[in-house]
Amino acid sequence: MGSWEFGNMVRRRREGVAPQTVGLPVGTRRRATGLRREELAGLAGISTDYLTRLEQGRATAPSTQVIEALARALRLPDQERELLFRLAGHVAPGPGIVPTRISASVQRLLDRLAHTPVAVFDASFDLLVANAPYDALMGETSALRGPERNAVWRNLVGPRNRVVHVEAEFASLIAQQVAELRRTVSRYPADRRLHRLVDGLTAASPRFAELWAGADPVTPTEPARRKRIAHPSVGELTLDCDTLLVAGDDLRIMIYTAEPGTEDAEKLDLAIVLGTQALTG
Q1: Which CATH architecture has domain 104-280?
Q2: Which of 27, 186, 203, 223 is the most buried (most CB within 10 A)?
Q3: pLDDT, position 228
Q4: Which residues form the HTH cro/C1-type domain (predicted)?
């Protein structure tokens, strides 16, 4: 088994995935019945060039993060996901690693929320998947690479998203995120990727280094449920932000909604329409 078998499986599965099953518009001028390379690359958070080299067997030894992202984007069932890992020379991540798999039941939940801004993060605050309405609201996420996909990194190092914070609120958010990250490290001490994230944050952010070195743990509190968002096309809007915790998979599902009939609801609808047109146009 080697890079050719891995690439061949990715290509065949890509060609067999209907765009509408992963929330993509079909369009009237579409020739391919499956996903285009650029579509799968965007869903998996990798470059189209890298995906091309993977499919053609010219790129070897993809990381476990890339394999998991491709399996997730292709909606592979458990047996095919494990096969994809084996073809790449890896074993599917075990219990000592931060879970990044989105189960079929959670995916069905996300599909039901296809018209609502939703993003899924793992226990280390890495963005696993964001739907089109979320990208329309917060800015496109498919181009984010490496540490830029981590919410703690983006808050402390950048690039930030469109949420507007007052200083005290932002300081509390950062303290809570660092405390949660510390607890994640204690649950997954063998995860080397997690330790690389902490090392990178320590080197890049003096504020993170200060908080990480602090002896006093932060008591978990209810995160802010109302978020102000500065949108470039519709202006500022305030939305409810609810975070659902998937205990068994250690995932965070973040959902943005507005009370029906309000000005914020109208702005949210317009932002999604304008953003989705821009992303698919």
Answers
A1: 2-Layer Sandwich (3.30)
A2: 223
A3: 95
A4: 30-81
